[in-house]
């Protein structure tokens, strides 16, 4: 029994020794494979960076819907022109904008994603840090939309955001139907942002959305100025608009289709109007910016000490010649404010 036990122990030690050797071999081969992969990947990335080393490239990333994508595109375009970069957009941005507009910026491909990018997340208003940007490969992060980045290139931005013919034709046909018997109508696009702002404004930004009084004041301004105004309403809360906006004069048309998953038709309709009443959000900004004409916007719609005021500058959000109507924030001032 003693000899048998000893032999079994020896055999056991030999087996573990054998397995230990195999395990070491496995680890060595695994480490070698990883090192080979990383070396090849580094060499590949290095070659890509050498390939583009003679260029200065800039791109951007943003999520969000149409208005946010347009803002990021325009800011990218403006900063590229200002700093001598060649701009590229993401596939996602291209998939959102190209079905609507005749955009020309190329799409960033997978090879370019391997470049040694410098990531930049700054403020949404023009400042000195944007005037002399030095990284060779610059990747903008964040929600950019301020006109201060691109307004000096306005004519080029308008060209980039030219609608495709079939979208323009649909908008023109709709406005022609709204003309009715009017001889010289003046179309005023009215964009009423509600949707997620009903939740975000009071809870996150400590602000308010546009109310009946604001819309009434803005519409009175245009009614007093033009003999035959036609108000074209588009909104993501059309039921509220129909219940709230006074349409008794026969000059208000709830013409938007309210489809947030396909907003191009509403935007085109607003852009083809002569003037704009906007409330909140980048969608309304772009409706006004592309339409030109006179724009009325909701002014000071958050608590003076709100997160929104610290996040942005009102003067960078709206063009200087746009007309701001003070929002009613009495309910915010009366309630206790938590930062």
UniProtKB/TrEMBL annotation:
Biological processes, Gene Ontology terms: carbohydrate metabolic process
GO molecular function: galactoside 2-alpha-L-fucosyltransferase activity
Membrane topology of the entry: Single-pass type II membrane protein
InterPro entries: Glyco_trans_11
Keyword Protease included in the entry's annotation: no
Subcellular location(s) per record: Golgi apparatus, Golgi stack membrane
GO CC entries: Golgi cisterna membrane
EC numbers: 2.4.1.-
Keywords, alphabetical: Glycoprotein, Glycosyltransferase, Golgi apparatus, Signal-anchor, Transferase, Transmembrane
Main enzyme class: transferase
Protein origin, superkingdom: Eukaryota
PANTHER family reported for this sequence: GALACTOSIDE 2-L-FUCOSYLTRANSFERASE, L-FUCOSYLTRANSFERASE
Entry protein name: L-Fucosyltransferase
């Amino acid at each position: 029994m003693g000899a048998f036990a000893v032999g079994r122990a020896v055999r056991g030690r030999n087996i573990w020794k054998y397995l230990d050797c195999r395990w070491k071999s496995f680890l060595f081969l695994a480490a070698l494979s990883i090192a080979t992969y990383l070396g090849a990947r580094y060499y590949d990335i290095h070659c890509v960076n050498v390939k583009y080393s003679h260029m200065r490239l800039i791109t951007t990333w943003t999520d969000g819907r149409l208005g946010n994508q347009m803002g990021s595109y325009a800011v990218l375009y403006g900063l590229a022109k200002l700093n001598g970069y060649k701009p590229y957009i993401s596939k996602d941005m291209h998939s959102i904008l190209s079905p609507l507009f005749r955009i020309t910026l190329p799409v960033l491909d997978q090879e370019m994603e391997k470049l040694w990018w410098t990531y930049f997340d700054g403020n949404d208003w023009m400042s000195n840090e944007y005037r002399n940007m030095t990284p060779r490969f610059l990747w903008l992060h964040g929600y950019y939309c301020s006109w201060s980045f691109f307004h000096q290139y306005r004519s080029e931005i308008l060209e980039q955001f030219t609608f495709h013919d079939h979208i323009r034709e649909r908008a023109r046909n709709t406005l022609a139907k709204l003309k009715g018997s009017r001889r010289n109508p003046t179309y005023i696009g009215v964009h009423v942002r509600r949707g997620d702002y009903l939740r975000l404004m009071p809870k996150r930004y400590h602000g308010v959305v546009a109310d009946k009084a604001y819309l009434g004041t803005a519409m009175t301004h245009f009614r007093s100025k033009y003999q035959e105004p036609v108000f074209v309403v588009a909104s993501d809360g059309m039921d509220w608009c129909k219940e709230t906006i006074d349409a008794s004069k026969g000059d208000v048309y709830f013409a938007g289709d309210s489809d947030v998953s396909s907003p191009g038709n509403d935007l085109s309709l607003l852009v083809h109007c002569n003037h704009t009443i906007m409330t909140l959000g980048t969608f309304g900004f772009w409706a006004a910016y592309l339409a030109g004409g006179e724009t009325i916007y909701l002014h000071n719609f958050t608590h003076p000490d709100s997160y929104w005021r610290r996040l942005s500058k009102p003067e960078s959000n709206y063009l200087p010649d746009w007309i701001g109507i003070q929002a009613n924030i009495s309910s915010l001032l009366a309630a206790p404010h938590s930062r």
